[in-house]
């Protein structure tokens, strides 16, 4: 399957050819693709296609019962070169490099950052190298919904829902990585959904909401609510 990318720098649509792996994905073997683009640096972009074990070994019946969602390879398309490259030596990361289909990601400092299972934010450069693993700031994270990463005011942010030991209720927390070269997150916000949404929206949506973005220049969070994410706050 081809991708179609709108390049905001040129305001033109570009057709990205099939990597050879996306066409093998089905409803149960879904594609996991992310866009790497920073108009402040270059008008060129990269498409990252993550190939999970059930797609990589889909023709190997002996492997069928051992799939656990780990990423076996990453195909990366460069709009400058016009070709795909395949990167598959991630054995040193073992089971730590596995990600939800809807894992939030952001392209920051020329590197794709994404949330993965097992409580890690993983930066991957355009050459397919995993640069390091940044532990998320919450020890009691939701394994199936590890949160998301964003960029605002030149810094990396992380947000997640967690159950507060103090209130015994779920709260939304937002953290910032003040020093990018460290692993020290600083808490910016921790708020109960009732206080955040107000009584009317909380009674209507409860905890059925998620953060979709943080404003790149201001202290502002964008969220969607409802089962179909049809309400924007």
From TrEMBL:
Signal peptide: none annotated. Residues 3-194 form the F-box protein At3g26010-like beta-propeller domain. It holds the Pfam family b-prop_At3g26010-like. InterPro entries: At3g26010-like (IPR055290), Beta-prop_At3g26010-like (IPR056592), F-box-assoc_interact_dom (IPR017451). This is F-box protein At3g26010-like beta-propeller domain-containing protein. It comes from Panicum virgatum (Blackwell switchgrass). The lineage of its organism: Eukaryota, Viridiplantae, Streptophyta, Embryophyta, Tracheophyta.
């Amino acid at each position: 399957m081809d991708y179609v990318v709108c390049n905001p720098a040129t305001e033109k649509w570009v057709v990205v050819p099939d990597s050879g792996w996306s066409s093998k994905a089905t409803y149960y073997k879904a594609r996991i693709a992310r866009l790497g683009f920073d108009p402040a640096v270059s008008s060129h972009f990269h498409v990252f296609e993550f190939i999970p074990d059930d797609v990589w070994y889909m023709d190997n019946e002996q492997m069928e019962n051992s799939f656990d969602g780990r990423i076996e390879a990453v195909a990366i398309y460069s709009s400058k070169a016009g070709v795909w490259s395949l990167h598959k030596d991630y054995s040193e990361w073992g089971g730590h490099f596995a990600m939800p289909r809807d894992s939030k990601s952001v392209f920051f400092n020329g590197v794709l950052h994404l949330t993965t299972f097992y409580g890690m934010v993983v930066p991957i450069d355009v050459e397919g190298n995993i640069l390091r693993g940044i532990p998320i700031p919450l020890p009691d994270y939701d394994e199936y919904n590890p949160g998301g990463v964003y960029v605002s005011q030149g810094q990396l942010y992380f947000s997640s829902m967690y159950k507060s030991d103090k209130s015994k209720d779920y709260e939304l927390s937002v953290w910032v990585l003040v020093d990018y070269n460290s692993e020290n997150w600083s808490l910016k916000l921790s708020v109960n959904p009732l206080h955040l949404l107000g009584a009317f929206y909380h009674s209507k949506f409860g905890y059925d909401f998620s953060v979709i973005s943080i404003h790149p220049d201001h202290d502002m969070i964008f969220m969607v609510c409802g089962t179909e994410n049809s309400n924007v706050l």
